Structure formats: structure tokens, C-alpha cells
Amino acid sequence: MSKFRKNNTKKALLFTLAFAVIIAGALAVTLLTDWNPLGNLVGPTQEGPGKTEPENPQPDNMVDVEPNDPEPELPVTFNIPDRMRAVTILPGEDYLTEKNEAADSVKKEIDAALDAAKDLGMNTVLVGTSTEDFAAYESLTRPTANAVFDPLDYLFAGARSRGMYVYCFYDLKATYDGAKLVTYPRFDTALMNGIEKELGAFLEKYSPDGLFFTNYDFPESETAFADYMNCGGGMSYQDYLDGASRQVVELASSLVRKKSPGVQVGLVTEPQWATTKENEAGQNTLDPYSMLTDGHCDAKAMIEDKLVDMIAVKAFGSLTDGKIPFERIVKWWSELAAENEVRMYAIHAADRMANSSSTGWGSSDQMTKQAITLESYKGCGGSVFYGLASMKADPAGSVTLLKKYFRNEVNTDYIMTELSISVPAKLTYSTYEPTVLFRGASDPTNPVTVNGTEIKTDANGYFSQSYNLKPGLNTFTIVHKDKTLVYKITRNVKIFQSVAPTGTLTVDGNTDITLTAMAYEDAKITAVVNGQTVTLTRDNSEDDNTDKDSFYVKYTGTYRTPAASGSVKNLGNITFKGSWEGIDENEAGASIKVNKITEVGSGSPIVVTASQAETFPTSTLDDLSDGSYYPLPKGALDYTVGDMIVFTSGSSTYRYYKLASGLRVYAGDISTSSQQVQDVVVNGMSITANASTTTVALNMSQPTSYSVSYSNGGISFTFNYLKSACGNISSLTKNPIFSSATWSGDTLTLRFRKTNGMCGYTASYNGNTLSLQFNNPPSGIAGARIVIDPGHGGTDVGALGFYPGKHEDYVNRQIATELAAILRNRGASVLLIDTSGSAKVVLQTRVAQASAFKPQIFLSVHSNSATNSSARGSEAYYFYDFSQQFCSYINSALYNAMGNYNRGAKYGLYYVTRTTQYTSVLAECGFMSNESEYVQLLQNYSQIASSLANGIGNYINSIYSGYTATGTETVGKVSQVPVKGVTLDKTTLELTAGATGQLIAKLNPEDATDQSVTWSSSNNGVVTVDQNGSLKAVAAGTATITVKTTDGGYTATCKVTAKPVAVTEVRLDQISLTMKVGDMLVLNATVLPENVTDKTVTWSSSNPAAVKVENGKLTALAEGNATITAKCGEKSAFCTVTVQKAEVLAESVTLDQTTMELTVNGTGKLTATVKPDETTVKTIQWSSSDETVATVGADGTVTALKEGSAVITAKCGEKSAECTVTVKAEAVMPTSITMEPTTLSLTVGQTRVLNATVLPENATNKSVTWSSNAPDIVEVTTDGAVTAKAAGTATVTASAANGLAVTCIVTVTVTVAGE
Question: pTM of the prediction?
Fold first, then answer.
């Protein structure tokens, strides 16, 4: 897109006049003497070497380098890519690769380079304009390539015809010394004139979309002071050094904007402008070279003063580089660019891709990660990939992945993923588990191996793999990209994880005791009690203590105690027996005592002292809650039966009493009473309905105990010790829930107007009056009071997911937060339980917060898990029957959202569902342990939340009767209960700024007729309170929260102090490091929470002799180990540092051959030698310039594929060596060899030539090798001539090049004189 350049105001530079004096003085010397300072700047001209005259000899023209003309500028349109994707095309590397190269050859190189750039997905080329030998354009002062055409003009035209933008590098200080191009050594008039002449001519000839200036800094040299003095003084030496770079850039920028206003002006910057130690505005980096201090180049000021339109930053470090990490470099420069409306581009070190010898570059996705990282920085306009040849080589598929990213074919979240394993949590541990499960995340474009074998990962890179553990040590090496994790797991065999009951068990006769064992799956489990063997079977029921990631499973069985007798019976211990894979194991359980027989009526009178006393059946003994048994309110009277019952499970011991009414209660929930309950009379009943609740009040003679039963048609209360009851209200006309209230003996039944038409109730005794307060079903979501509880949170992450940090608590919170927002938008009053803090929110706190909110509906959002990764589906749990219908709607909603397996609406024992006050359900949305469902949970949380909201709405519609009449209807003697006072659960409270809290108001009496109150804060700037008692600390200070009753105007207060935010955690970006002596690295500390009051971090080293630390900057001084501590407040984080010997880099690489000839399909071996011998990393990276001609293996073996030539490169670090391989046509091998003759007789001294013929005629190598097995008898020459030397027999062999051979038997005799 195009952009208009804004007009710039002139900068009043303090040193401009001083520079004018210097340059004018230098010029005066030039004019008055024969000395020519331009001699070393310009190349040969038509007038001969060194004779070019300045075009503008007047000093005024030379120093007028203000960046703006005095006359107004017109708006200028720039050609700018929306998002730059550029690759460099460099002379000497990608074109003009040979001296005196023919024009057609150069054109082919340029076309090939541009086509390659286009194929790489680039929209821009960044063209180099010179090498150390020549300029690639028509230059006035620099030698040009010996080509008969203009290569730069051809390249520009070719790029634009392919729809690509064209930018150039331009070296400002390049000068010709008579042999090659070098950097002009000083700042003087000659330099400025040379720039004006050379750059001016370039701009008249070429119009790129932008020019990036290079080589404009001025590192201090040995001759710098002498150069300064020769220029005539006029300013300080430091100002001379610091101002030179700016003057050069101002001149060049001014020239471009005058001559080619449509060309953007840019700078190529080094990674580091300055360190924070050198300048407080600097970077937290450790590059040896700083532009400001080493190069005397204030690029930051040039950007701020609008001398340039863009910058290209040499971001050559990897993301994990210890000195110049990519993201830290990009962040600093991009923020500077954004603040000054300058575009910033990152130059990537493409030549380091997949190079394990460069820190962080070993992985094939490093370049793609860098490109993704740039997306998050506003000032960054794109990427420049340095090195077309490296990009074309595509090492380890690095560029293939980058191209996929450009085409939006990869999920960037996953590409950024390193190997992360959530299960197991530790690398080294001991376990009794028979199996280990590895669950984690990876980059889906790269394999994961376990002990060398690749495992299955899904499209997102998630994996779940289990392995059986053998007894003893098990080692698992997991490798992904450049990361390796080694797990050392010691397996100890123990069939039983736990058994229950344990300790001493005291029970009554004929009681069913639940026997429970957690043991290996597929084990055979029995229990022996009093000589009787009980077989335990698998039990899939779940509660809050179920560990879904354990391979231990639950087995249960039931043992019934014998009938009681007149004395206590001791049955001895329970013995649990387990058998698994040939191993037998016993575990001792509880010792059982059966109480002596007790007659009903012989117990003590008791009163319920707990606010709500949980009840259990008397026929069984365990601590499992039972949804058929409802709680008793405080004040209820009853009698105990028998002695205390004791039950122990693990470390918990439970004590109970049986009641004469047939209930079992905790011993701690009751106490003895002087009042005996009997002949209870219900004198009257009132049923009062208002907009939100219906209260059934029973005026009784005594507060007796009762039991509750529920059906879809109504709810019934059966009272114990009842003598008589008041009359019925057969037809209720002022009630939205109930249609009638009738007695049948000792049972009161309240009939629903609509099936299952209730959503919770609370019961309380105020004296002898029992109040049953029911929630009226809302008419819809609008107006409903709903609590959404995200499961787990804080230190409790719940079920572990595959992706780091995305565990169950995260998923639950995402869904719950979205659900709460949807419900609020639909008009509901919603309490979202806050689980976002660092502390665990215990179950009791969740229920207390929900109860104080007085909701009609409660939904706890969870996600499931299993050791079997194929487990899938959604399910929901209820406890009390009146919540079952809500559970069905929620389960259907989950199935509609997930589209997976419907596991059903189930009865469960979860704590948050075990209250009668409201309808409550726990939802398991899907399995965190199933890869595909995990992705759904992460990505589709909005869809899940929306479906759950619909499920809540459908449930409300199903129970709302549409009946809106309210009022009071009575029978018998009744009375209203007035408010007599109010108290708060806290009178003082401390919160940290930003935190929330909850106050609970309690009316006296608890069953007062009018329950309404109002809340207020004395200082809303410190603490706010809503009308449910929910608090929010806004800022540090104090405020008084007041609650006031509507009836009577009673008040209670709580003083709330909001404290400054304390540090909860300090994190370091690295927890372990390996450094070399002399290395410097930077550790970054993050202090949490983000709003902490004081974030000052102090640093220390446990071994400063080995590692020194200053403000997070580490310097490795000597071999050894040190622990670096970063402390803020009372919290600390640690990093373990190991310092090794300094790395010795390769200084040279040589090959045993520099040329090699092979035939097609032939092989040859190259051997590389790295010097010095003590080089730390000697790994050789082999590559071929043309893998269609010849490839090279990791061991240097070269394989010839087709005719042609290829250059094989052996590289170690930054050093390399080359061998040119020439491949010829495949050899035709000999198929046969024959000889004439095959036998021969000679006399000593005779010679004869043997003839050998090699077939076929077109055999590539028809050479024959001759040999004699007895050269002392027969000698043979290389051309087959045999000479008899002595009497005897010899075999002469003719061998073809491929080993085929033929022989001739030669017999030698001696000629006898006279014969």
C-alpha cells in the first residue's frame, strides 16, 4: 500500500556549523594546493586515474546537507508491500558470478534468481549493488562488471514484470583503491563529494522502491585523531567522531529526497544500538558491537529526526540466543520505529538454518518461528531473508515450512510449540504404577521418538503414549527437533494402592460394610472377614477424590456383620488379598467390633447442632453420601440408638450415631438434649410466595426430625414422633410452584404445578417453627440467578492437557467465563467463581460463595480425563433427584456442542452438587486425555458455552409453570416471624488491591419472613460491594461495608482493608543454562501478578567466581556451577548455571580432494579435516550445490546421479572447504575376455606376444592387466609380451578392469646343444 511522507521541520543541529567549518577548511586546502583528497575516493575516469574534479567546488554547496529544502515539498507516494517478504539477490553470489561473464549468462542467472524468489513466496527482492571487486551498475567512480549490458536495469525490470517490489542495498563509503573496493577510511570533504557524485548518478539512472544505506558508521581507527586534526578542528574530537555518521546519512538522505522523492530512504542497522549500561534507553542485549559507542553512529536519533523512512535490522540471533535474542532485538527496534512512524524490517540469518553449531538454529522451524514472532510487533513491516542460495537449499525443510506458513497452511500456535510433556510431571521418580503414560504436545511438522521409535502424533502435534514398566529402572529418551528429555522411572511392584476400611471399626449388627481397594487393573481382589471370603469387583463410580490419571482402579464388595448379641463381638481384622500376574499380596484392613444389641428407645435424646446435618442410611456403613437422604436443620430433635459407630478410611476416621428415626448422622453434628421429643403437633401451616421464593412455615409443638422423598410430581416430608397435623390446603391459588399442600398421616406432600417444578430449598428451625424456603423457578434466563463454577484453578490445574499451560483449569475457565458472559447478556444475574488467582479455591469456599449468592441454578464446569487416550464423550452428574432433569438438559447441550459420544446424565457424589439450596450439576465437557476432544475443548469453548447456555434456558422453560400469582395462604394457627437483628460472617477483612471477596449476612432469626437486605460501601474508591455482598478491592485503603435489613432497619458492618499487591511468584525465562568461559547472557525475570506494587528484583550468584550477575546479566568467569537467584519481595526464582571451558571454534576445514571424477551411479569418499585439533564441535555439515548431479552423505560419501558437475561443501561452524565433482556417463563394464593362445611352449630366451580381447566393443574401459604367477620362469610385459626365463611351467593371466580374467599355460624348456 502507498503512504504519503509528511513534511519535516528543520532540525537545528548544534554541530552543523562546526562541520561546515571543517569541510570548508578541507576544501580550501584542496583549492589552494595540488593535494587532491578525492584521489582515493573515485576510480579511473576519462581524464585518467584520480583526475576527476568536484562537480560543485563551492564550499556552501558541500555543507548544505539539511534534510529538507526550504521550498515546500509536495506529497510523495511510496511503493510499499503490505507485508514485506524479501530475499536478497547479491552480485557475485546469485548473478555476475564469474569474471567477464557473457550477457546471456548473466541474464539467465538473474532470471533464475527472480524465479526462485517468486517460488519462495517472496513479494520483494533486496538487491546488492556491489561486491568487494566491482559495482553491479553503471558507476562513475567504481569499477563495473565487464558486461555488455546493465545487469541492475535488467534485474529491476525482471522483478517488476513478476509483480515484485525492488529495494537495494547501497554502500555509502565504498571506494576504489586501484585493486578493489574498500571502505573509505576517514570523514572529510572527499567522502562527502564522492557520495554526492556517485549516489547522485545512481539516482539519475535507477529508481528502486527503496534504498537501504550500509557502511555509514565510523568506528574509531588509529588514524582518526590525525584525520580530525587535518580537517582543521572547529569542534571537539568526540563531536567529530559522533557527528560524522549523521552528516553522511543526512547528505545521502537529502540527495534521495531531492533527486528521487519516490524512493524510500532506509538504514541497515546492527542488532544493537547500545546496551542499557551504555545508555539508559538502550537494549538489554550483549552484542560486542554497539552502533552508538563503537560505531559513533546514533541511528536512534536519525530515526527520531525522520532522516529515514525505514530500517532493516540485522536480527541474526535465534529466539534463544543468549546475547542478541531475536525477539528482544526486534522488540526494541520495532517499538522505536512505531513511535516515529518509520517502517522496520527484520533481516533473518537464512544461512544459519538447521545449523546445530549456531545457538538455537538446530531446529528446522527456527526461521518460521521468527516470522511468526514478527506478527505481534506493530512497528515491524515484514522480513528480509539474507541469502537466496541458503533459501533455495531448504536445509531440513526449513524453507518448506516457511512457505506453508506464508500460504496459511499451518497453525501458528502449533509451529511455536516445542516438545512439552505434561504427564508425567517429573523426569526422575519412583512409582508403584504398572504403566507410564506420556502425554504432551509437539510441533506437528516434526516427529517425536521414544527410545528411537517414532510415535503417533495427531494433526496438532498432540500425543498420548503408554508403556508397561518393568520392575526396576526404566529409561525413556524422548526426542523432538533439537530437544531431548530423558525419563528415569523406577517401578516398584505393589498390587494395592490403598484399602478401606482400616483402623478399628465399631458397628452394629446386620450392617453392610463397604469394602474398598484401589489395586492394579485386572487383579483378582478378595477380602476375608470373620472366616468369610468376599470377592471385590470393579467399581466405576467417581467422586472428588478419583484420580483419573492413575492405572490403579477401584474394587468394592459388601460384607454384612452378624446379628448383635448381648455382648460386643470381635470379628478380627479384614484381610485384603490380591493376585496379579503371578504375584500375591495381602493388605491388612480394619479390626471389626460389633456392638451389643440395643433396644430402640434406650438411647439418649439429642438435638442437631450443625446448620445442616448430613444423613445416611443405617443399613450400610461407609462414608458415601446418599442422594436419597436429605439434611436435617439445626434444632431438630431425635434419639440415639446404640453406641458410637467408628469407620476409618485411610488417614480419616469418621464417627456416627444411629437415630431412632432410622437415620445415621455424624457424631459431631449432634449433642445431647434435655428435651425429649414426643407427641409432636403441627398447629398450623402458612405458604407464602413472593417474586423469588416460596416459604412453607409449620407451627409445631416441638422441632422434630424428618425424612424427605422426591418424585417428579412433588416433594414429601415425613415427620418423626408426630401425633397430629393441621388441615390441608387442597388448592393453592397464590403460589407459582405448588398446587396443593396435603397431609397423609405424618407426611406432608407439596404437589408441583409443573413436573419437576422446583430448583432447591433450605430448611431451618426458629424455635418450634420449621421454615422450608423454596426457590421459585425463573420465567427464563432473564432474571435467573445462576452460579458458574470453573472447576479447579490456582495451584490445582486439574487434568493435564497436551499443550503447556493449557490444562483443565484453563479450559474450564475459558468455557465458564464465556458462559457467564452469554448468560449476563441474556439478562441473568451471574456469579462466576473466581479461580484465576494463584491460590486453590477449595470446594467448601465455592459452595459458601454460591450459597451466599442465593442462586436457583449452579453449574460446575469440568473436563474429563482417563489413562486410555481413546476414552471420549461428555457426561454430567447430579446428586439429589430434583437436579436430575437439569443434568439431562446439560448433558444434551454438551453432546450438541461436542458432537461426540453421549456418556449420559449420571448420579455422582461430587461435593459441589451435594446441597439442597439450589439445582446443581457438574458437567464433564470432554476428555483432556483424548487428542481430538482436547482440540475441541481449546478451540470451541465459545460453542460449548453457547450450547450450555441454551441447555440452561431449556431447563428453566421445562420447570417454569407460567403461574405468577403470589401471596400467603394458611391453615390452622400461624404467625409471621419478624427480623430481630443481622450479623455478618466477618467484622474485619483484608483484601489485596484487585482481589474479590464475599460477605454473608445472617438474619436473626434465620427463618425471618422478610429476608431482604441492602448493601453499601463507605468508600467505593477503595472497595465496592454489590447487592449480593460481593466485594471488589479497587485500591489500597480502608472502607466500611454495611448491610441493612428491610424489616426493622437493622445493620451490621465489616471493616475492609485493601492492601498493596504482594509478589506471588518470580519466574525466570530459563531455569538452567550451560555457558562457556567468557560468555555473557541475559536472564529475564517476570514478577507476578502484573499489578504487584514493587517489582524491584535483586540478583545474586552462589558462586560469583564462576558466574557473575549484574541486573540479570551473567558473565561466565571460570569453570564450575552456580545458582543464580532473582528475588522480589519474599519470592525467589532460581537458575542453575554450568560453566564449561571456552568453546574453540574451527579455524579451517580442508578436504583430502579438491576435485573428483565419477561415473553415473559411482561413489567416492571425501575426508574432511578440522583445525585446530582442539575444536570443540567438529561436526561436518555436507552439502551439494546440485543434488540432481551428486549427493553427499553425512560421512562424506559422494554418490553420482547424472552427468554434470556439482560442488560438494564441507562446513564446520563458519569455515568450509569445497570439492568439485565431475560426473561422466555410466561405464559399460566388460562382459568377457579371451586370449590367443591359451597354451604356449617356449624355450628359454624366446619371446612371444599374447593377444587378449575384451568384449563388448563399447566397454568404457578395455584395458588389460597382465601378470605371471612365476616371473622367474615366465616374464610378461604390460602389452602381453611373454619371455621365457627358465625351464618350468607358469600361468600368465590377462585381467579386465572389472576383474574378469583369462589364462595361458606357458611351458618353458631348455634347448640342448646339438639339438
Answer: 0.57
